[in-house]
Amino acid sequence: MTRANYNAPVPAAARFPVAESVRDVLRDCEQQGLLDELQQALGIVPRPDEAAVRAVRDLVYELAGARNRDLAVDVLIYATGVAEFEVTSLRGYAARHGLTAEGFRKQVLAMQRRLGLPPRPMQQSDAN
C-alpha cells in the first residue's frame, strides 16, 4: 500500500461493515419471530427466570425479617389468595394470632404493597 492510498478516504460502507450485518441480523430475527429471544440474549429485557428469582428473593426477605414468622406466613397466604383454598377466613387467621380482623387486614394490605401484589377483594363479612 502506498502512502497516497493509505490516506485516501474510505467509503462509508467499508468503514461500518458491522452496522450492515447488525441490520441483517435484526431483519432476520424479525422475519423469524425471534426478536424477543434476541433481546433476552442481549440483556435488553429481563429473562422470565430473573423475575421468578426476584420474586423468591423478595419473599425470603419478607419472611426472614418478620418478628413473628407464623403470622408473616399466614399474612402471605392470605395476601396471595392461597387462603381461598382453605376454610380459614380472614377472621380465623386474625384470631389465630390474637389480632382483630381489621388488624390482620391491615397487615395483608401492607404486605401486598411491599411485595407489589395486586390488592384482592376481601369479604366484608371476613373483616367484621
Task: Tell me briefly what this model is.
This protein has 128 residues and is mostly helical.
Task: Give descriptors for this structure.
0% strand, 9 helices, 67% helix, 128 residues
Q: What does it look like?
A:
- The chain is an all-alpha fold.
- The protein has helices at 3-6, 12-15, 17-31, 35-42, 48-64, 69-80, 90-96, 101-115, 124-127.
- The chain is 67% helix and 0% strand.
- The longest helix is centred in the middle third of the chain and has 17 residues, at 48-64.
Low-pLDDT windows of residues: 124-128
Rg, Cα atoms, Å:
28 Å
- Roughly how many Å apart are the termini? 90 Å
Largest sheet: none
Mean pLDDT: 79
Taken as a percent bin, the fraction of beta residues is: under 5%
User: Which structural class should the secondary elements be placed in?
Assistant: mainly alpha
What is the succession of H and E elements? Answer: HHHHHHHHH
Estimate percent helicity.
55-70%
* Tally of contiguous helical segments: 9
Shape: elongated
Number of strands: 0
List the helices and strands and how they pair.
Blueprint (H helix, E strand, L loop, with lengths): L2 H4 L5 H4 L1 H15 L3 H8 L5 H17 L4 H12 L9 H7 L4 H15 L8 H4 L1
Helix pairs in contact: 6-8, 7-8
